[in-house]
């Protein structure tokens, strides 16, 4: 839609804009509420990069509106029968919008939000899975053998379908393990203590306090994941209590506030990872060097240099 893949570049500087705004958004979002407005105002005044990023974000908003209008015209002209997210939202707006207060403006807002919410987190997860596979040759060979065998016996086809990919146990274990070791969100997902207060793990919290759990802490719990919880070990998902481990996975949050994009993200991950492993041989260009990470809500990785060779 934006031309990133076609032009092989950051069209409009959108990705740079999001990266520039994340530190400000993260700090502002974690400050006490009485300081938030003052912080954002001073940041906009002081930081030229933030001011420029806000302009790029406005362009993303306009691009989202253009995409919605274009899709609406395509549907009206019956150009295709695709049941994508935009079609679904436009149908909800047309059929029940007034009843459930889902306006045409809401379609714009949801489309705009999806650009911010869904891209970085999924990319971080895929980076982690592939990075840890490349750093663990035995696991890389195991997953390659499983995918090759699944293609040969017809379990999966190319391009990979999500419904087929989830049937591969070692692939699933590697995906779980990659997301466990490096959850995409690196801060807590706070909740406000209700008016009656709350007792959590033997500690009492007064009403109005914010409490949260960091996935990067819980997912390293050795009582749950074993004494080697610091290591990339896909086999643990077959050897230990998988149900208990899955309960402790907070990659997408938990409960009523679970990430609404969870299913889309998992679908992308389960399609992309086996497709890449099947079609290409990947290895780290600098295997002795570790990646660098920068945690501003999204715990993004950098300095991952990879040699990629097409498999015959």
Could you give the topology of this structure?
Layout: H1 4-7, H2 14-30, H3 33-46, H4 48-76, H5 85-100, H6 104-134, H7 137-152, H8 162-165, H9 169-181, E1 191-192, E2 198-200, E3 203-205, E4 210-211, H10 215-218, H11 222-225, H12 236-239, H13 242-247, H14 262-279, E5 280-284, E6 292-296, E7 298-302, E8 306-310
Antiparallel strand pairs: 1-4, 2-3, 5-8, 6-7
Mean pLDDT across every amino acid position: 92
Largest sheet: 2 strands, antiparallel
Seen as an oligomer or otherwise, the chain set is: single chain
Count of DSSP strands: 8
The class by helix and strand makeup works out as mainly alpha
Looking at the structure, what is the overall shape?
Answer: globular
- Calculate Rg over CA atoms: 22 Å
| Spatial order of strands in the largest sheet | 1-4
Range of strand content:
5-15%
Please report the distance between the alpha carbons of the first and last residues.
Answer: 31 Å
Q: How many helical stretches? A: 14
- Catalogue the unreliable spans: none
H and E order:
HHHHHHHHHEEEEHHHHHEEEE
* Helical proportion, percent range: 55-70%
């Amino acid at each position: 839609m934006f031309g990133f893949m076609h032009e092989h570049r950051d069209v409009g500087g959108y990705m740079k804009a999001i990266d520039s705004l994340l530190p400000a958004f993260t700090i502002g979002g974690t400050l006490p509420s009485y300081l938030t407005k003052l912080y954002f105002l001073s940041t906009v005044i002081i930081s030229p990069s933030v001011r420029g990023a806000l302009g790029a974000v406005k362009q993303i908003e306009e691009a989202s509106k253009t995409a919605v209008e274009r899709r609406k015209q395509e549907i009206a002209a019956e150009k295709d029968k695709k049941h994508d997210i935009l079609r679904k939202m436009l149908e909800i707006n047309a059929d029940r919008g007034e009843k459930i207060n889902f306006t045409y403006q809401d379609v714009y807002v949801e489309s705009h939000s999806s650009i911010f919410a869904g891209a970085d987190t999924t990319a971080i997860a895929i980076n982690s899975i592939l990075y840890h596979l490349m750093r663990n040759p035995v696991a890389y060979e195991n997953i390659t053998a499983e995918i090759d065998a699944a293609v040969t016996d017809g379990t999966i086809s190319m391009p990979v379908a999500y419904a087929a990919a989830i049937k591969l146990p070692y692939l699933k274990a590697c995906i779980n393990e990659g997301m466990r070791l490096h959850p995409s969100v690196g801060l807590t997902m706070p909740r406000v203590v209700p008016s009656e207060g709350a007792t959590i793990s033997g500690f009492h919290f007064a009403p109005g306090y914010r409490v949260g759990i960091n996935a990067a802490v819980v997912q390293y719990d050795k009582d749950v994941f074993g004494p080697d919880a610091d290591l990339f070990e896909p086999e643990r998902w077959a050897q230990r209590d998988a149900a208990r481990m899955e309960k402790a996975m907070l990659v997408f949050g938990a409960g009523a506030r679970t990430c609404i994009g969870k299913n889309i993200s998992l679908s992308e991950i389960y399609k992309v990872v086996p497709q890449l492993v099947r079609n290409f041989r990947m290895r780290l260009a600098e295997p002795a060097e570790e990646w660098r990470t920068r945690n501003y809500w999204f715990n993004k990785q950098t300095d991952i240099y990879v040699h990629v060779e097409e498999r015959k």
